[in-house]
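Chapter summary example: a protein plus zinc ion.
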Amino acid sequence: MDRLRALAALLLIFGLALAFAPLGQAQQRLKVVASFSILADMAREIGGDRIELRSLVGANGNAHVFQPTPADGRAVSEASVLIVNGLGFEGWIERLQRSARFKGKIVVASAGVSPALTADDHGHSHGHSPGGSASTRKKAKVDSLPDPHAWQDLRNGMLYVDTIARGLSEADPANAEFFVKRASVYKQRLAALDARLRSEFAAVPQGKRRVITSHDAFAYFGRAYGIEFIPAAGVSSESEPTPRQIAALITQIKKENVRALFVENMSSPKLVEQIGRDAGASVGGTLYSDALSPPGGPVDSYTGMFEHNAAALKAGMARN
Ligand SMILES: [Zn+2]
């Protein structure tokens, strides 16, 4: 009788273990949704296999014009943590949070950053020199908004990592030590990369450090690494430029005498390619600004983005 009871108890324990082990494991993983691929990569570096991660805007996606699907809404409603960039980058996020009845913790990754202001879409053709002209500054007072692309400076990226690690730790205190430790190792990698890029760009003669890009996403990068990014005048990632704006841009390129022209992975390359041909400049390659490539692609991590962009920029600037 005792042996039978012991056997039954063993079977019960074994059965319970089978029934609850996978469920228990799944429940332990913090559900995290990041608004776009760069934040998702940072969250993956920090959260490792202790989080279940989804990115709303996917690889090569344009967060400026993103339209969430019902599946995105479901993911947000089930998430414990929602990581966003902030600074007006995700214009669609508040509506998505409301419609998904998001009750979790929102982490604004850029919270610790001092934001730069954007040149407005029409002002930069007149005053892209540091400080800008008096008229640009006056205009800026009226039109300027925070520039959301703060992750394009690795030192800001380190602040993002701190903020994300803190957010994950608050949402899942049992794993706080794990998150903070991984964040610290990751930040060391970012700091080493930052130092290397600084010295590499410093070795390029200052007069050559000028490039033209299709959308104005590199102000932070330019300030951090001493490069003048001349945004294609009147070209916004949200609208196609008019023939008049294109003609103005070609004049601008010729006047500025810049050979280094770049397209971006999340906007159509055709326009910049055509402009390059018409202006006698060549397209120096693709820069990654607002999205990573799919896993296994040329730029599938935040650090890989800097490696890729730095190599492309150095090659392009060498032709200036
Ligand atoms: Zn952008």
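Key point: Residues 208 and 320 are 5 Å apart (CA to CA).
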